[in-house]
Every structure is written in structure tokens, then in C-alpha cells.
Specification:
The structure is a homodimer. By secondary structure, chain A is an alpha/beta fold. Chain A has a domain at 436-533: ANL, C-terminal domain (GMP Synthetase, Chain A, domain 3, 2-Layer Sandwich), CATH 3.30.300.30. Helix content of chain A is 27%, strand content 24%. In chain A, the strands form 5 sheets. A 9-stranded mixed sheet of chain A has the order 2-1-10-9-11-12-13-14-15, with helices on both faces. Chain A has a 6-stranded mixed sheet with strand order 6-5-3-4-7-8, sandwiched between helices. In chain A, strands 16, 17, 18, 19 and 20 form a 5-stranded antiparallel sheet that branches. In chain A, α10 links the parallel β11 and β12. In chain A, α9 crosses α10 (268-280). The N and C termini of chain A lie far apart (67 Å).
Chain lengths: 543, 543
């Protein structure tokens, strides 16, 4: 027996039209390359996005076609975020940190018909223009020619674009995973997934994004849908400030203070940099209610210090390209509020509860759920309406397939190793492949890295497994000291520092000092490169 | 081109399992008829609900079958709220303020197979037992016999009930409209509608219900799904306090103070009564963050006074049985915060913005949207995934039917008359049929009532249209004074009081003093009864 409720499709179009109707006077600001702030309103966004949809049609973009963007964060990129899916096409955000070869692979794999590009990024496309035959048109966002973005938008009809009536399961966007192994894989989002994800970000035990927020948007819009924030912010009428290109700690501090940001989000290195700056110089960041950190581990010390010194809560979140991406969020439970301070911050440094809509489990090698004791580790698996069921053009690795490497019993296998505590909070301990398997025991490289990065002389630390004749694998620490301590830091003081933080058998067998830890295209530690480099490293004898 | 996202159904089952997993230690308290508090945990709710599902199966309840409840608010009713839909059956909450005849009609119309009933309400069923042949079984919630609720639950298997895999469009519950005209009409909710509605109540610009809330639940659970709060509260892990039966202002004050309620919601008369009590006696209600008022109009003065005197925000919401029910919520926008105080409270007394998921328009007689000026009135129409598409066994009045009285172009016609202001806030002015059509102009009876109820000597006021030889209709005010002013209140002082609040031509032509305004089964002013009673009333000459 079916209910008698309207068959109303969950599409981004309805969220966009809501924003245009309710929030015309709200502001969207963008820090431009010359440092000036470009400001316009939701009414401008609304009108220009409708015009842009006319442009897409004129360029021959049809329902289901892929439209690439190779762009920095800006109001124009936001217009593409809405016009593309609402007009029935599929937004393909291209990571500008990829090499030209990698770009050629994913552009061809996705079959992009048009690419919108910032002029400064044209050099990335130039070498591959003749290797991406699917691309019929390249439109420059900030060019001043008659075929560039602004000219096309200006020439488009001013009349509202007649949005097609979409099925909620139609594709809205695609992102490729950064591909630490093998070729990048395409995740294909639906309108339904993005609609529900936007609702989840507005829920009060999640990002709680609201009309009263000023969102400082610094996550690159080419990175996992910018965590869904562009859609959630517009749907709820938040004021938006795009932080511009190549954001440095000083940019963050100036924008938070100058624009009165209440909410911002990004990878941990941003907030570690901001913290270091605030140690040296005075900025008022008291307008912030929350900083969300995700993408890699954040040493506990920063959660403590931001809250104690600056009164700003850092909330960790966790997700993946395959989960649209937000799957968990750290919101303090009422029953954690009375904990002793040390335990409170232990909890606050975890990755939180699954947001409503996401089911989550942590399972051992036999598929049994591990104990909720905050100690037992297992693989984190998730399912839900905004979790991927497979990858573009890869029918073998799909939720229904028996050969699928990424799925088990209807769950997506994240490849992350996690614990789950008595409150239900998960803590990501490592990537499965980054665990150090020492004898029969697992050592979390992330745990060691976080502990090392809590040392006052350390800027960055990465831990990898290297082969060991007796234990199979042992941890090796690569440490980048803060510049002023380059000549004074020693291996012994680091091992000594760790010795009351981890068990003795978990201590790294050696420490190698480096200038910086190599990063992937989305700013994570590139452990694959490190493993490659230190493949034949010989650990000192003794253990 | 479809997205590659999991085909994960939006069912109440997934929300319930989430709560059982994440919040086992959270409390649910119920004020029992003897005044004592019954307390148990989500773990108890979880285990007993699974047992109750076994009971339903044993009673022969199959997928799609209707299960009636004729119950006060309590933890047992909450168990029925979850076990029934999660097991695939349809929860039919019966309004205990209906007459036995009305109950017989809706029980037969819905075809209830089992009815769960509080022993104190058995006398309502006794006279109609032989007129409801569809009902195979009546189970007493608080009886101590072997066939009563507790014995059945105790005898059920302790093993988790194997919930069926439901399609999200399957029916989850039904409520009948109170039927101010004609027979009651059955609205049939789906799992999808209730899931999305629950997500909407958790959004920060709506009820913002969270794990950190203590919800004082006083809306009757037989009234429009108790506004969706039982589902939203459990999904998010809020502490819940059921306020018991026949709630009086003193009960409210004691429970808010004693249990530290942070959120409560109900019809305006509750809060007007609470306000009056707080004028006489001292209670600490500072734990409250929000009182939500809906169901009928709330005089602006109470919004002002609660906020100024008690620091507690009253937020109006609006919805109908046909909208699951929440469709709008009053959340102050950032761009209203700088308004002069008088204008600020004008705004705060409106019914808010549509919650994300609900589309809303206000249209004139020709179907054109009225100006967003806060003055032009029109019929409020809504659509969305939790808006009804029709009524049980009434194919002519459905969204697709050309003969449908309740639908226009895919929109549900609410029968409410509203304005919409420059911020997008709607204000419900009246029911279409309660408007006073004076000459060519409309007079809002609700506006006059609210103004009258702001007079210090007035307890209740209702305004109805009576026939007029020249103007067709003119307003007549029925006023119930506060008891201590019964002998001192005069018509002239009320008209004088109104004269700077409404236009002169809108002033009532006469005032009749009554002991109390008659109410419907859900506590609204029964204007149909008043119109009937004063059908032949002769207004004084002079206009």
C-alpha cells in the first residue's frame, strides 16, 4: 500500500529556485586575483545562472552531457555549480593540481563536451588539446573576448531558463578520486544524493549551516563537491565569501576578521597554519562559531588550543569522494559535556557520529563488527542514499557485483581503518594500506604522525611501513621540522617525546628529517611516493 | 543518465535503527496519570519496539494493514509510533476528542484491524464496538490482563524483529482531518514523506532539534503526527519528556522547570495559559531555547512578552494534516535583526519561511502570485515531497484530477488566506471561509481576534461574518473576558482599543460577550458552530 504523497522529485533545481525566491538580497563575495573583493547578491547569482543555462544550451550541451570546470573558487564557478545540473547536464570538476596527463585521462574517461577554464589554468590544457577530442569547446571564465564567459552570459536571453523536469536519480555531477592506486575512478552523483546531502549539512548536529552564517569558502571547488557546501549554503541562504586562490594563513585570518565569517571548513594544514600565524600576530577570529576540519588527520593539540586560546571549536568530519562527501561530523553529545577535560578533548578530536542518512559499521577481517571500545580497529564501511554504488564505466566494481573490490554485502568499503567508542564516535586510524603490520599487531601511522606533530619543533610528520626481517614491517618516521629548529632537532628527543604517548613496541624504528612531506593533488601526505622512495631503506638494527 | 548512488530507501526503519545504535543511554520520561514520572532509556524503547513488532505479527497484522491508536501521550504510544510503520503496517492515530460516531466513521473508513487503547478511553469505543466489524482486536495499553499490552510485549520473543525491506513510498501512517466541513478525510503518509520531514525538523533554520535537546512533548500524539516530533526527536537522540494528560499551565511550568526542557511546541492557548500563570507565580523556564506555536493564531503580544520578560523565543510555525504537518517555520533572518523593535516583533509574529523541501505560493482568484508586500492577501498553496496528493478512497479529489477541489496545477490548495512580505515570510490571515467579505474588501477575522486578545481584560475572542443588508457581510466579535473582568468590560472600550490597530471600516459592528469560545476536537475555535449560532443575528444599525 503506497502513501498518497506528492511525487515531488528531490532535485537541485528546487533548492536553487528556493534560494532565488527567498534570499535575493544576500551577498556572495569573492576575493579576486588582484586582491579586490567582488561582491554581488543572490539575485545576481540567480539571474546569471539562468543566463548561463541558456549559454549551455547554445553550446549544444544536452541532458546528461558532461561539462568540465578547471577553475579556482569564485562566483562564476558557483554559477556553473548550479546551471550545469539544473539544466540536466553533469558537472565535472577538474582538479587543477593534476598533471596534464592525468587531466587528459579523466576528461576523456568522463567524455566532457565543454570545459570552462580560468585563464591562468589554460597552460594545463594546452599540451593536451589534441588528446581530448571529446571536448568541442573551451570557454575562458575571465577572458574578455566575444567567445568568453562574460560575453556569452551577457548575450544570453534575460528570460528565465525553462529548467527541465528532472528525475531525482539523474546524474548531477561527477568527481574523480585522486587515485592513490591505479587510474582515477569516476564517482557519479545524482540530484537526489546532493539534495539529501544538502539537507544533512543543514541539520543542527552536523554543519548546521543556516541563513545567519557567513561561510568562508576555502575548500577548493574541484575537491569532492567542495564538501557539498556550495549547494547547502545557497539552499539555506547563507552569506558566502570565496577566499580566492593559493590561500595562505594570513588570507584566512584577514578574511575571517574582515568579513565576520561564522563558519569555515578545510583540510587540517590550513588550520595548523592559521594557528601558527595567530601565535605571532593578532587577529580577531571571534566571529567564528565552528571550523570544520577533514581530509586528513588533525593533531589533537590543535583542537585543544583553538578552543582554549581562541574559543573556537574545531569539529572533525569525515567523508570521501564516494560519499558526496560528508558521512560523519563531530558534534559534542550532551552526555560528553561532563567528562574530565582530558577525556573531553580525546572525544572532541574524534571524527564524530554518522550524520542522519548514513549507516556506518566497523568490521574486522571476518566481517564482524568490532567492539565499541575505542580500541578495536576495523575497516569502516558505509551505506546510504549519498554513498556510491560503483564507478563510471566500471561494472565489475559495483555494489551488486560479486567481484566488486569496493563493496561487501551492500556496504561501501572505505579502505579506512577506524575505531568506534562507547558514544558511537568513530576515529579514523589509518588507511588500510598505510597501517604498519608489525608481527601480528597493527600500528596506526596516523596516530604516530599526530603525536609527532604535537611536538613543538615539528611542522609535518609522516609515518610509513618499511620491511623488517623479523617483524615483517616496522614504522619509519619522516619529519619536517619547523624552519627555526632545523639544526637543533634530534631523533632521540622525538622518540623520548613519543614514549609516554604510544606503547613501546609502536615507537618508530627510525626518524629521517626532510624539508617537507610530499603532498597529493588534494593536499594529503603522499605516502605512496614515500613508500616508493624508502622501499629499500634499511632500519637500524636493535629491535 | 542516472547517477551511480546506492538505491537506499528513505524509511523510518533506518532512522529507528540509527537511534537504537547511537543513543541507548538517552532518557524518555512520561508523566503518568498518578503524577509519577516513568523513566526509561532509548535502549528500552528499542528493545520493546522490536518486541511490539513481534506482537503485531502475532495479532495477524500484515504489511499495509491499518493499526489504530486511541491513546494519550506516553512511551507506549511512542513504541506504537515506530513498531507499526517499521513492521510495514500503517499507524492510524485516532483523535480522542472525537465523538463515538465520528470515531466509528474513520475506523471503518480506514479499515483498522487492531486498535490499541488506553483503558480510560475504552468508554469511547464501547458504544460502537458492533459498528466497527473491521476491528478484530482491541488491546488495552495499561491493562494488566494476559491479553493486554504489557503481557503481550513480555511474551514476545526478545530477538530483534526482522524488519521488512520497505519501499520508501509505502504507507507509514494515516491521519484524518478534523473535517470542519463534510466528513473527515484521510491523509496517507509515506515513509519517504516522514523521513524527509524528520530531516527538515532537524535543520537549524527550522525546529533545530538535536541530541542536546530535552523536548517537552505536549502536542497530542493523535494530532497530525504530533507535528513529526516523535520521529524527529528519536532520530536525533533528543531526550524526551511526555507531559501526560489534560495538560494545564501549571503542569507545563513544573515540567519545563523540573526537567530542564529546552524545546516545546503546541497550540497557542497553551502558551497564553503559561504566560498568565507566570504573571501570578514564579517558575524558572530559562532552560527553554524555543517555544513553537502553531495550529491557530497567536496574538503578537505574547511573542513580545515571552521574549522581553522571560527571554524565551516563541516561533510560529504553520502546517496542516495534509503537510505531514510542518510547512513553514519562523526563524529570524539575519537581515531582520537590525529592524526597529516594533517592526522586528511584527516580523517575529509571522509564520515564517517555507522549510527546505516545501514550495509555497500565495495566489489571487486568478491564480496569479500576489505582491510580496505583506498586505496583499491570497490563497496559500504548497507542494513538496511531504504534501498530500489526495485522500484515502477519494480519487476525484487528487492532484491529477481535473475535478479536484483541493488541488490546482500540481499545488495543494490549503484553504488558508495569507500575505507574504518582502523577506518571504508568510502570515496566515484567515481560513478562506472565515474571511469577512465586506463590500468588495476582505477583513481578516484572525487579525481582529489577535488584536482583541491583546486587550488586558480579554481571555478569548472570535470574529465571524454575519449577513449585512448593504455590505453583504460585516464582522461580529464574540469575546470571553478574563473572569475578574466579567462585570467591568464594555463594548465601547474594546472598539476604542481596536481603533488605532485596524482600519475604521474593519472595526466589528458589534461585540457579544460569552463565557468561552467553543473549540473543535483539536482545540481550535469552532467558527462553524458560531456561525450556526449567530446566523440570524441582527447587527445594530448605523453603518
Amino acid at each position: 500500500m503506497h502513501g498518497l504523497m506528492m511525487n515531488y522529485q528531490l532535485t537541485l533545481t528546487s533548492l536553487f529556485e528556493r534560494a532565488g525566491r527567498l534570499f535575493p538580497t544576500k551577498e556572495i563575495a569573492t576575493k579576486m586575483p588582484d586582491g579586490a573583493m567582488h561582491r554581488y547578491t543572490y539575485a545576481d547569482l540567480y539571474a546569471r545562472t539562468h543566463r548561463l543555462a541558456h549559454v549551455l544550451k547554445k553550446l549544444g550541451v544536452a541532458r546528461g552531457d558532461r561539462v568540465g570546470t578547471l577553475c579556482w573558487n569564485s562566483y562564476r564557478h558557483l554559477e556553473l555549480y548550479w546551471a550545469t545540473p539544473c539544466s540536466g547536464a553533469v558537472l565535472h570538476t577538474l582538479n587543477l593540481r593534476l598533471t596534464s596527463d592525468q587531466l587528459a585521462y579523466i576528461i576523456n574517461h568522463a567524455g566532457d563536451r565543454v570545459i570552462f577554464v580560468d585563464s591562468s589554468l589554460l597552460p594545463l590544457l594546452d599540451p593536451i588539446r589534441d588528446r581530448i577530442p571529446c571536448v568541442e569547446r573551451i570557454v575562458v571564465l575571465d577572458g574578455d573576448g566575444p567567445e568568453d564567459y562574460e560575453a556569452l552570459v551577457a548575450a544570453a536571453p534575460a528570460a528565465k531558463y525553462p529548467w527541465p523536469e528532472l528525475d531525482e536519480n539523474e546524474a548531477s555531477a561527477t568527481c574523480y578520486t585522486s587515485g592513490t592506486t591505479g587510474n582515477p575512478k569516476g564517482v557519479l552523483y545524482s540530484h537526489r544524493a546532493m539534495y539529501l546531502h544538502s539537507m544533512a549539512l543543514a541539520s543542527v548536529d552536523s554543519f548546521a549551516i543556516s541563513e545567519r552564517d557567513t561561510l568562508l569558502m576555502v575548500i577548493p571547488m574541484f575537491h569532492a563537491n567542495a564538501w557539498g557546501l556550495p549547494h547547502a549554503a545557497v539552499m539555506n541562504g547563507a552569506r558566502i565569501v570565496f577566499g580566492g586562490r593559493q590561500i595562505q594563513p594570513r588570507d584566512l585570518a584577514e578574511l575571517i576578521q574582515g568579513e565576520g565569517a561564522t563558519l569555515t571548513a578545510g583540510v587540517p594544514t590550513l588550520w595548523m597554519g592559521l594557528y601558527a600565524l595567530l601565535e605571532q600576530e593578532k587577529y580577531d577570529i571571534s566571529s567564528l562559531r565552528t571550523i570544520v576540519a577533514a581530509g586528513s588527520a588533525l593533531p589533537r593539540q590543535f583542537v585543544v588550543d583553538f578552543e582554549r586560546k581562541h574559543g573556537v571549536r574545531i569539529s572533525l568530519a569525515w567523508g570521501m569522494t564516494e560519499t558526496t562527501p560528508i558521512a560523519t561530523f563531530m558534534q559534542s553529545r550532551s552526555d560528553c559535556e561532563g567528562l574530565p577535560e582530558d577525556e573531553y578533548f580525546d572525544v572532541r578530536s574524534r571524527h564524530g557520529l554518522p550524520v542522519p542518512g548514513v549507516d556506518l559499521r566497523v568490521v574486522d577481517g571476518e566481517g564482524r563488527e568490532v567492539a565499541n571500545d575505542g580500541i578495536a580497529m576495523g575497516e569502516l564501511q558505509v551505506r546510504g542514499p549519498w554513498v556510491t554504488s560503483g564507478y563510471l564505466s566500471d561494472p565489475d566494481n559495483a555494489v551488486g557485483s560479486r567481484k566488486a573490490a569496493s563493496f561487501a554485502d551492500g556496504w561501501f568499503r572505505t579502505g579506512d581503518v577506524a575505531t568506534i567508542d562507547r558514544f558511537g564516535y568513530i576515529q579514523i586510524m589509518d588507511r588500510t594500506k598505510d597501517l604498519v603490520k608489525s608481527g601480528g599487531e597493527w600500528i596506526s601511522s596516523v596516530d604516530l604522525e599526530n603525536a609527532l606533530m604535537g611536538h613543538p619543533k615539528v611542522a609535518e610528520a609522516a609515518v610509513i611501513a618499511v620491511n623488517h626481517p623479523k617483524w615483517m614491517e616496522r614504522p619509519l618516521a619522516l619529519v619536517a621540522p619547523l624552519e627555526r629548529f632545523r639544526d637543533s632537532i634530534t631523533k632521540d628527543e622525538l622518540i623520548e617525546f613519543l614514549s609516554d604517548k604510544v606503547a613501546k613496541w609502536q615507537l618508530p624504528d627510525d626518524v629521517v628529517f626532510v624539508d617537507a612531506v610530499p603532498k597529493t593533488s588534494v593536499g594529503k601526505f603522499n605516502k605512496r611516493a614515500l613508500r616508493e622512495k624508502f622501499r629499500d631503506y634499511v632500519l637500524p638494527a636493535g629491535r
